[in-house]
Amino acid sequence: xxxxxxxxxxxxxxxxxxxxxxxxxxxxxxxxxxxxxxxxxxxxxxxxxxxxxxxxxxxxxxxxxxxxxxxxxxxxxxxxxxxxxxxxxxxxxxxxxxxxxxxxxxxxxxxxxxxxxxxxxxxxxxxxxxxxxxxxxxxxxxxxxxxxxxxxxxxxxxxxxxxxxxxxxxxxxxxxxxxxxxxxxxxxxx
Length: 190
Hints:
Number of domains: 1
Distance between the termini: 26 Å
Number of helices: 6
Structural class: alpha/beta
Radius of gyration: 19 Å
Order of helices and strands: HHEHEEHHEEEEH
Shape: globular
Strand order of the largest sheet: 3-2-1-6-7
């Protein structure tokens, strides 16, 4: 098959996948979806207002063209990889997915080009208020690891647990973060 035919077939395949599944799978969560996620996450993990866990994974690209290897190879991996940022809930539903561009080698680089916060930045985000310890919050949040920025939309676990209460909170967060790690595991099954 020629390179042009391969590109055209791939383009048409993607076009029809989007056409078939856009309304179900390729969309932002609705207000109803978010309310349901609030209920499930609070029941399972005890975290009100949480949409899911956010994380990145490197995906080995075995057939990466030689001319691109330098752009997609990171020293600690030693092979060409693509990086995928996702928000996944405990039912393995991906509410957000963004592949990093060439040269984006860590979570922060991918986050800078990600569209996940566009609605908030543009003032279009749906008000999905929730209350924690008597304080009302307007937007959803995501559990993330220590690399993410200090931001109200990220809740990171404690690095130093000074007391039993913080230790319990850290364990609960790490348990909830397993949702996205499990979703990555399902995607990477061979």
